């Protein structure tokens, strides 16, 4: 799945939740704004953590593939030199 679409979906969900929360909340505006601000910070932190995990996972897989390709190239070079 495209990361940009996932991030856009998450942001849209956060925005929709905030709007619905404001519409249906029986609290004072200042209290509601404070809660929305806190929730937004929580969502942003969670999103940042997930993005960091994704980047770490991607980097690890990339390094594994890179190492595997380097080993195969080295093996093929040795095989080619042996034939010459």
Describe this structure in words.
With 84 residues, this protein is mainly α. It has one domain. Helix content is 92%, strand content 0%. The protein has two helices and no strands. It has helices spanning 3-24, 29-83. The longest helix is centred in the middle third of the chain and has 55 residues, at 29-83. The two termini are 46 Å apart. The model has no long low-confidence stretch (mean pLDDT 86).
Q: Topology of this protein?
A:
Elements: H1 3-24, H2 29-83
Helix pairs in contact: 1-2
Structural class: mainly alpha
Low-confidence stretches: none
Number of separate strands: 0
Q: Strand content of the residues, in percent?
A: under 5%
Oligomer, anyone? single chain
Query: What do the pLDDT scores average to?
Result: 86
Instruction: Give the % helix.
Output: over 70%
Q: How many structural units, i.e. domains?
A: 1
Give the H and E element order: HH
Distance between the termini: 46 Å
Specify the number of helices: 2
The global form is rod-shaped
Largest sheet: none
Radius of gyration: 24 Å
Any descriptors?
single chain, 84 residues, mainly alpha, 92% helix
What's this, in brief?
The chain is mainly alpha-helical. 92% of the residues lie in helices and 0% in strands. The protein is rod-shaped and about 85 Å long.
